[in-house]
Amino acid sequence: MEGLDLVNLFVGIGLSEVKAKxxxxxxxxxxxxxxxxxxxxxxxxGETSKAHGMLLYHIATKIKPQISMQxxxxxxxxxxxxxxxxxxxxAAMDYLISNPLGDVDIKAFEESCGVGVVVTPEQIEQExxxxxxxxQAELVEKRYRFNVGPLMSEVRNNLKWGDGKVIKxxxxxxxxxxxxxxxxxxxxxxxxxxKIAKPKVAKPTSSNKENLELDSDSASTITELMKKxxxxxxxxxxxxxxxxxxxxxxxxxxxxLKITGGQVRTRFPPEPNGILHIGHAKAININxxxxxxxxxxxxxxxxxxxxxxxxxxxxxxxxxxxxxxxYKPYQITHSSDNFDQLxxxxxxxxxxxxxxxxxxxxxxxxxxxxxxSPWRERPVDESLQLFEDMKNGLFEEGAATxxxxxxxxxxxxxxxxxxxxxxxxxxxxxxxxxxxTYDYTHCLCDxxxxxxxxxxxxxxxSRRSSYYWLCNALDIYCPVQWEYxxxxxxxxxxxxxxIAKLITEKIVHDWDDPRLFTLTALRRRGFPxxxxxxxxxxxxxxxxxxxxDPQKLEAVVKDTLDLTAPRSMVVLAPxxxxxxxxxxxxxxxxxxxxxxxxVQRGSHSVTLDRVIYIDRSDFREVEEKGYRRLTKGQAVGLxxxxxxxxxxNIKKDASGQVVELEVKCTSSATCQEKPKAxxxxxxxxxxxxxxxxxxxxxxQNPEDTNEVPGGFLSDINPHSLSVVEAAADKxxxxxxxxxxxxFERVGYFSVDPDSTEGKLIFNRTVMLKEDAGKS
Length: 775
Prior knowledge:
By secondary structure, this protein is of the alpha/beta class. It has 25 helices and 27 strands. The chain has a 7-stranded mixed beta sheet, with helices on one face. A 6-stranded mixed beta sheet has the order 18-15-21-20-19-22, with no helix packed on it. Keywords: Aminoacyl-tRNA synthetase, ATP-binding, Ligase, Nucleotide-binding, Protein biosynthesis.
């Protein structure tokens, strides 16, 4: 049927011309709607009423592919007037999606959607009277400020098939009868209620507008977020859009539920050939977080099918990072645990004519329009023997692969299931010289572990059809794959190959260099695990790919550390200051709160002596407009000391560098003019190394050749690391690796693992947003 004919057909059932044209452009919906109209016409000779037309349109747009064969049944019931509302229609579709196979039990079907059930106006009136009476006292008290929504829900629950408009009208009538017309007080605006500020969460920028069913708002914690996400219930896989149902599906799901007891099961399946990065943190939180929020379990499964790139340090590093983020795997498994079963299943595919041994080279199979394999239709027995020969080492690497007869959504034809690699495996040794690919292994290991929700990033959407195809081809339990948008952070690279290049070029020191966004690097820099988890929660769960400025992550880190990192005074650029009229006989001890806004949380002692050190930035020899700290004509206060100092003399070395200031002090309690600023200081300090980190790259997208034509290595920030010798108060002398502090007026810092017993080293985690000119 041509486009204009379709539009006329759709207008004929009551759609507006605009809506009809929009519908005609959607091939799937227009095909469904045409089927609905044809089926309805078979039982009704007259024109389709607008009410029936809207219900047919509802079927066409809302029906799931798993039950699309039931379009004629639903359309006939609409045309016959047996299903006369969206409420009944939705109930009918819910019943069908819950019973997707076999003949429809008409009696159960009609009961599910209330066919023949009539709710009279008298019944509605009586039910509303009961509910009004139940809430009468509260109604009289709150009058028209009372929320009648719950009343509506309660009546609808008791009269499932009652007309919603009639129920609403009856409630309004009886409320009016009880309360009378609205008074001036009822019409006055309600008193303002002070809003409680919600915790700040990072808001990502989306690189596209596509969202999934799993869209959820952001949340302040991952648990809160995961309770919002609407995935399918265990065992109800068949209700998910796109899920493929076979004759064996329902029996396999019943067996699955017996094994799992209806428990949610997820998995985090990293490849052990690199260190986890910030994007993995989102995956960890979604997989472990969803399981935890639903009293389920999450497996940590190493996808160890690429032996030449796998190292023990990566296995250990991955587990450490998962646990650092606060998660404990239900089981730690390996894809290699299943090599024997995977091999047997591969032979099963060959026997079914669904896989074959191919001799095309890797370069011949690349791209989306490769030359079809001339070996695609080779005899089953021949492929079985050749696959055995591959296993027994009778082919050179690259001389043969096992390919599956399936086309991916992206158009890729016959993905490889097995390839030859003469590399010893860290767990199986030299037993195997053929190794399964991700496309083959992933879904089968999910099935073996009875995963309920296979949660992965959006780029794997193109593999979803092969995921379902492969499980169904082998007649095994098929989990549901859900995709979400991956997390990309600007001003960095996370590619294993590119990080390795940065290391070999000696631009960064190792995988945990604090300028990187690997999880080990972020931990070393001082990012708390809680902050990373909360940042991931702030991203929400959507199908859109996200690009995030590092400052948004740093903001969450800062909020976390503000509550957890004790304060200390450390001077990054020490300048000696001698107080000529020091008011004490010798060094004196001052008690300083660890958290100035919460003094009850503890304190530490600092020493005040005649000689102190301040930061060079807190002194100007030449006065500048707006500068609020120490100058020749401007005094400044010393934090916690109760003293205000004013300049008397400046000492310089032979090169003209200021090396010492001589000042006099007065008590801040008796000072005639309050100083404009109070600065931090140290006395009798210990000296520590402080590493100050900036962004590693200068451009937002260092891998984008349009933005950085010379490539990412040409975009390195030459000032990404500077090291200073700082003067620190001795109260931090007992700090341990990864202990975190706020250096007052400077930023948050963490003890680096390079620290030794005689020398503490601190990494700057994030700076404070404090205006240095004000304090």
